Model the fold of this input.
Amino acid sequence: MFFLRQGHLALCLIIALFTPFISFAATQSQTAPFTLPPLPYAVSALEPAIDTETMTFHHDFHHRTYVDNLNNAIKDVPALSGKTLEQLLAIASTLPPVIRNNAGGHWNHSEFWKMMAPVGKGGKPSATLEAQIKKDFGSLDAFKERFNKAATSRFGSGWAWMILTSSGLQITSTPNQDNPLMDVAEVPGQPLLGVDVWEHAYYLKYKYKRADYLNAWWTVVNWNYVNYLFEVAKRRRGT
Done:
């Protein structure tokens, strides 16, 4: 009985560790009709950094709306029905605004949930990622300072990102639901970490204090997932 329980615990641990990565692959290959992914943790799991009420509205209403709007819009353009989210993002400049905005919103949020984890569960930057951060930004603290500046200085609604490009890691921000995978991005690259700075992501708890939201958000960053994305991005680039 002890060995059965031990084996069961090991299986649960494996599932917990790899579920976000499995869902990453599923998100990338999915075509219409798109579906709302479940949160990879309880809706209250990111307390106190992100409150339960915000998470509930953000996932169950805002993200669901992007998915529903995207599916409804794609019905009117059958030629796009067989394209994955990343394929849609790659031709964003040619898409009707309703598809571009909602495809971006769906992709951004699907990744955002996985880029966070309960306090104490997100790990830390891997040795290779930390070395790259130090090479490109000087230190982890300097990186966070520049990332926060990109997020706080984004006028209105949008996102801040750490991305991998041919020249290394860069920090950028995008308006509305755009992201660096889009062919309209000012600084294109593979997103490794992103934060939502639309007011619906933080206003219920932090009101107008975006900087306070960002400081709390760092406590729930899922570095385990960021490390994984970094390795995948490097393999894609052959580095």
About this structure: Residues 1-18 have pLDDT under 50 and may be disordered. Residues 2-29 form the longest helix (28 residues). The domain at 50-239 is CATH 3.55.40.20 (minor pseudopilin epsh fold).
